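User: Here's a chain of 697 residues. Predict its fold as tokens.
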Amino acid sequence: MLILLAACALLARGCAAGYAGKELGALSELHHGVRGRAFAVDSRTLFLQHFHYDGEGPAAYFYVGTSKTPSATGALRLRDERGGAGPLRRYRGEGVTLSLPEGKTLRDVAWFAVWCDEYSINFGSVEIPRNLEYPKPAKVGALRGVHGVSSDPIVVVDAQTLLVPNFSYDGEAPDAKFWVGRGDKPSPQGIRIPDENGKEAPLRKYDRKTVVLTLPGELTVFDIGHFAVWCEAFTVNFGHVPLPRTALANVPPSLKMLGVSPQSKLNCEVLLDELAFEVRWAVAGDSIVLQLVAKLEDGEYMSFGISGHPTKSQMVGGDVAVAWLDKDSLKGYAEDYFLEAKGQCAGAHGSCPDDAIVPGSNSVRMLNAALVNGYSIVTFQRPLRGSDRLDLAVLTNASQPVIWAIGPLNSKTQVSYHQYFTKGDKFIEFGRPPLWNCPMPEGEEEQAPAVARPAHESSAIIRPNPVPTPKPTAKVKPWDIPGIQCYEPPDGVLYAQMGPTGGKQGYSAITGHVGWGISWYINGLLIPEVTVVRGKKYTFVVEGGTDPDTPARYHPFYITNDPVGGYFHKSDAEKQGIEIYAGVRRTRTGELVPTGVGRLCNWTPDQNGPEADEYPSFGAYQRSLTLICEEGNPGVVTWIPDKNTPDTVYYQCFTHRHLGWKINVVDECDATDAEESRLVESVALPSDLVGEESIQQ
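Assistant: Prediction complete.
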């Protein structure tokens, strides 16, 4: 086995350990000992090399701006390298990595400065050239060779990372390895590099899989001339691509090249054995680096954070990070969320990203992500102290309650209803000495993995440590829920109430969409398909809530051609082509106001009963539900489908997405020998609510 630490010595050129990106120049040395050199790492990232500042200024911050010279006009304040928003601390020749706000690039600004807000003084700055060619990933050639070796053009993500899209290899050779070396063609003098799981074993079969490879040790793309699939035992080239230096001259540096080095050990706690869900962490100065690991399905998220109650685990009021991995691109995400209420994010209410409530308030800094042996691993950083009103502090001197959840992302890549979540109270002491309370993988030494941390303790990359793989989750067959046929009920009266989505066998399995955990029940049935006849009058008795100030308990009913719903929160562009057939009225100003509003009735599960997934049928599950209604009157929506009504429309919630399902519209109905579906509840309409109050748009 080759010694990776000696890898650079095998190559003609020395390692480019000093590379930090496109150099912008030295900071002007004006006040308080500010000095250092600034580099553009990529379109949104700056790196300060050997940065000094005495920390004595009263209100100094990092700023970028658009004016010709540093000033308060057109300036944007940056969070520090730890994600903090407070005045700058003392720096003693450290490396500092800074990110611009979302939506801004280095081409949008003209300077970077250490600026004192209190006295409007520039302590030190550097100009950012107009039309800066900042470092960015570079595409090179595609693999083509024997044994079925092929790929799309390879992307050099940064100086130590290669992304090989749609890689294929038949797996038939005895000793194939990923291989790099000097020159533009492979030879036995090259070195193997670990596969996407960090292993150096012979390659298995790949079928159009996208893999991400990391060069070992201090090795960079500046030290090599090719990438190959190479049979080491028989010295055969299965396929390679040259890595021309001219094409790679402006790729970003890796985080390791910006000062990351192994240091201390991690803490680890298991959150859910079933999915091997773990939280790992290390306190670094006035911030904390966290890593979430779980066996997730594609399109699922994992979340972890501080409870909304100081003495028990409570979701409402909680401050969590929501993390996930796109398994196609292998890109990781981590977002700061405030859990205002148990409901999907609607406008700025419910369980929402901080940025949706207060733009620019995201306090979570994404560090890295990986997919290892099917485990999603996402590493991020946040300040210990709250940066704004939506953040809760992480305590290092006491134990505190935490919350977590795993569930599906919706079509807006926001959290949806979680099927796994904190049960009971869970406490963690974040400031404890490192303690590893998680399973260790077989075959490894009995020691916790190290957290990789920059010398200045500002961020971290944590070595993956996958635990034994749980059994794969079986594909779920949806419950068989009878539809409401065209001949029933004879009087055309249907009751629309709220209820649970029925776990994995319910809403998501039926519709193919993720839900929030609540959905419409029509005549006591979970989102049945409803068949109606053109020309016949239908009356929907609506009991979805009346209080718009509590979005999680307010669900106006309407009928539309939109399979998603949530018309109230759609943009003007999203509203194009959407028709509404019932459940709204138009005001004199042209605004559409929902009319399908009535008291809230919920089909409520037994809190002490089995989980929804344990019921073999919807009928069995339905018998466990109890209808609980608030005081007040139901609302009424009347509708007569006509010749212009499409064959398929949808009943939906006006303020939330994905709560309803299909209405099939037919011209005629054969009721011969038909048996009505059982009507679970029958309510007589109050006389003052019977009327033609709905309109078609």
